[in-house]
Design the sequence.
């Protein structure tokens, strides 16, 4: 084989291996991201850079209350009152890719995939009530020190406000309650749709550190 061709093939081989390893690390271990919306203000601010820990998805570990997670956006984000079923408050995912190539593009390359970032409020088996501008878990008011003063929690229009979180699901909301489309509107998130947990803020440098 021509030495130059052999050298080119070796470089191509190294590049392919590097890309595969990078994709595997990004999917199974962690990846950076940029805050694009205001739903988690003031905890997270637009254009901040975060490091996402994806090991929980790899090990199928249920997050804890208070964790800030990212998850695949449901296909149905709003309901009419007649569509609300608080006996089955699970978000709907109806536009899933069907073949291997489309799954790779959607789930691994994340092309055409929309994700939300919210805080875990309630866990499987817990009774959630949203009333009087507050959140109650198993009939006890939830202490939420991460909220700004004066913020109230309500359900505008049709939504989920009195239900039990199903098995292998979480109920999550944005800290900026008046500007957050979250589980109040579309229901609880199945564990398999949770992508990552926010680990640290990496930019700006003066805000670097663990996100709580």
Sequence:
């Amino acid at each position: 084989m021509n030495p130059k061709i052999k050298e080119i093939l070796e470089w191509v081989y190294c590049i392919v291996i590097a890309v595969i390893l990078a994709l595997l690390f990004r999917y199974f271990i962690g990846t950076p991201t940029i805050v694009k919306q205001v739903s988690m203000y003031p905890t997270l601010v637009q254009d901040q850079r975060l490091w996402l820990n994806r090991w929980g998805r790899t090990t199928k570990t249920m997050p804890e209350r208070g964790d800030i997670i990212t998850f695949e956006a449901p296909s149905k984000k709003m309901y009419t009152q007649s569509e609300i079923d608080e006996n089955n408050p699970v978000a709907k995912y109806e536009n899933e890719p069907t073949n291997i190539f489309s799954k790779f593009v959607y789930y691994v390359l994340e092309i055409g995939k929309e994700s939300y970032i919210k805080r875990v409020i309630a866990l499987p088996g817990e009774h959630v009530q949203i009333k009087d501008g507050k959140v109650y878990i198993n009939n006890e008011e939830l202490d939420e020190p991460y909220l700004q003063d004066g913020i109230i929690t309500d359900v505008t229009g049709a939504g989920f406000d009195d239900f039990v979180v199903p098995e292998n699901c979480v109920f999550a909301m944005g800290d900026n309650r008046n500007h957050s489309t979250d589980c109040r509107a579309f229901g609880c998130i199945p564990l398999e749709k949770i992508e990552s947990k926010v680990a640290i803020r990496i930019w700006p440098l003066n805000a670097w550190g663990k996100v709580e």
